[in-house]
Amino acid sequence: MDSAAVRERAGELPRSPGVYLFLDDREVVLYVGKAVELRARVRSYADPRSARIRRMVERARGIDFAVTDTETQALLLEANLIKRHQPRYNVRLKDDKSYPLVQLTAHEFPRIEVTRDPDDSATVYGPYTDKGRVDTVVKALRETYGVRGCSDHKFAGRDRPCLDYDIGLCTAPCTGEISREGYVADVESVKRFFEGEGGVLADPIRRAMEAASQDRQFERAAHLRDRLAAVEAFHGGGGEAVVARDRRTVDVLGVAIEGERATVARLRSEDGKLVDRERHTLSTPGDDGETGGVAGVLAAFVPQYYAERALPDELLLPERPEGEEVAAWLEREGVSLRVPGAGREATLVDLALKNARRGVGRRDEAGSLSDALAAAYPDLPARIERIEGFDVSHAQGRAVVGSNVAFVGGSPEKGDYRRKKLDDRNDDYANMRDLVRWRADRAVAGRDDRPDPDLLLIDGGEGQLAAAREALAEAGWDVPAVGLAKREERVITPEGSYDWPGDAPHLHLLQRVRDEAHRFAVQYHQTLRDEVRTVLDDVPGVGPRTRRRLLRRFGSVENVRAATVEDLTSVEGVGPKTAETLRRRL
Fold it and tell me: Exposed e or buried b for every residue in 239-248, given b needs 16+ CB within 10 A?
């Protein structure tokens, strides 16, 4: 877009808080920003403030926007959109956390739901910072107005109300227990609450609390009091009702920037003691001046990082975040933000900075790997952040299983591990194709809640890699893939193979991913194999537990058959009589 086109589009935008998105000719999001006033903020891009932003505007072919009620909502929505779209020209924290939203679906009888991925046709409210508070409020709304929370599939074709009706969470429009007009009126009350009319929910809860207190139902009254506090805090009021935390929590952040990558180290202190430390990587396109340096990185990191994490009581930083939006949001959430100049707190910030700088100035494994694979995959990111490994394990075509492990920043992300039982078949290539196709189909259909990887690593050589690439092509999932065979330790790509030195750090990274995928597959295979019926089950005195012990001890039925009576009796649960029976029957 040229300057005239930017000004023309800006003139069409409202003078309201919100977020704006620059899109390329394929409608891929290039950049997401927030604004107190959309029209003025977007107009400023007619005269870009840096070379990075100038390149972005030149590539852009359109500008989309979303209006929010407050500046805080704009801040949080920006963080959500950055996480969802991973735009090239934003400072990005590479995790998949985002802030919760509430949606009322476009169904004839709308459903209320807390979500991070709303339907395009739904009425959506948020985002909000505290998911626990959102869940409390949604439950209170359902108890007060009976709006359903079930899926459309469960709603359709019912002939009697479900349990939610019996416990007062739903008025059962599915079976006509309430008229459509009455149900829609209740939905309108819910909408009025989310649009700022807090009394729609607070007043009924307050009346119920007072009635419970008068009836000496003190436990129920206390429960309603806590719910009322959450409801009042939901729209920014009722801060005085928030119960103080048992322990004072302090997060300390340090930042180190190197080229297009920043590292943020976080230290967590509870009750004066350090209890946790971790490091996170962000993409920072452009140099320090273009991204706002440390202050700009902090302005991007804080709202993205705390998307689904409890905010601390205090936040100690080396600099104040760029702009005032983050500081204002933290203040409203009751978080004390400080930049200490001396004393123990300054020492903690120094320690966080040292943690952030650890390794800065040298090429890491992920960066080296990207360089080493540049010839085969020139579009790889400068630093391969997320790698998923795949392996298949079976015993001559029986108990066939597949593993899918994930590494982020060079370390295993065990919460993202997956495994799958495959059809019994003694065909490694077909098994690998089925495993990768399963992962690809779920990703393309949006049924896998994990982010797309930067690279797939296949345990095997040319045949396994070809099978995996065939599956990717069939599913339409465009993700680079390489293979790593065990014996030669050669890396296989579509363009050829690489024989890297044994001490190459990028080879070590791939080996760790490959070995973990293999371990995870074998572990599942052994578990499954132990559950497969064998001839051992027909031997008197050998139950499932003894059978598993025998297979663990000898590895296979053939080895059990070849074992001596002395060897057999060394297994717990196998006496001389059972050992003799095994020898005769096998």
Answer: eeeeeeeeee
Give the contacts of 39 (CB within 8 A, at least 6 positions apart). 10, 11, 13, 14, 15
Residue 384: which of 509, 265, 287 has the closest Cα?
509
Tokens 């003799």 sit at which residue?
A: 580
- Per residue, what are the HEC states of 330-374? HHHCCCEEECCCCHHHHHHHHHHHHHHHCCCCCCCHHHHHHHHCC
Give pLDDT, residue 238: 33
247 contacts 274 by C-beta, under 8 angstroms: no
With b meaning 16 or more CB within 10 Å and e meaning fewer, what string describes 402-423? bbbbbbbbbebbeebbbbbebe
Q: Which two tokens stand for residue 355?
A: 């943690």
Q: Read out DSSP for 35-59?
A: ESSHHHHHHGGGS-SSHHHHHHHHH
Q: Which structure tokens are listed for 411?
A: 């370390």
Instruction: Confirm if 529 and 395 have CB atoms less than 8 A apart.
Output: yes
Pair of tokens at residue 141: 């709304």
Chain segment 512-565, per-residue pLDDT in tens: 899 899 888 888 887 766 555 566 767 787 877 787 788 778 877 778 888 888
Please, are residues 44 and 87 in contact by the beta-carbon 8 Å criterion? Answer: no
pTM reported for the whole predicted model? 0.40
Number of neighbouring beta carbons within 10 Å of residue 321: 25
Q: Which portions of the chain are predicted below pLDDT 50? A: 237-247, 287-289, 359, 361-363
Residue 359: how many CB atoms within 10 A of its CB?
Answer: 13
Could you tell me how far CA 560 lies from the centroid of its own chain? 46
Contact call for residues 283 and 386 (beta carbons, < 8 A): no
191 vs 188: CA distance, rounded Å: 5
Contact predicate 261/383, CB 8 Å: yes
Residue 470 CB-density burial (10 A; 0-12 exposed, 13-18 middle, 19+ buried): middle
- Residue 246's pLDDT is 38
Using DSSP, state whether 91 is helix, strand or coil: coil
Distance (Å, rounded) from C-alpha 506 to C-alpha 320?
36
**Strands of the 62-67 sheet, one edge to the other:** 29-35, 18-23, 62-67
CA distances 330 to 173, 303, 312, 336, 398, Å, are: 41, 9, 10, 7, 56
Distance, in Å, from the CA atom of 356 to the CA atom of 262, rounded to the nearest integer, reads: 9
- For residues 150 and 170, the answer to whether their CB atoms sit within 8 Å is yes
Judge whether 406 and 479 are in contact, CB under 8 Å.
Answer: no
* Alpha-carbon span 82 to 90, nearest angstrom: 7
- DSSP-assigned letter for residue 445: H
- The most distant pair of C-alpha atoms in the chain lies apart, rounded to whole Å, by 93
Phi, psi of 174 (to 5 degrees): -60, -30
Return the axis-axis angle of helices 71-85 and 293-305, rounded to nearest 10°. 90
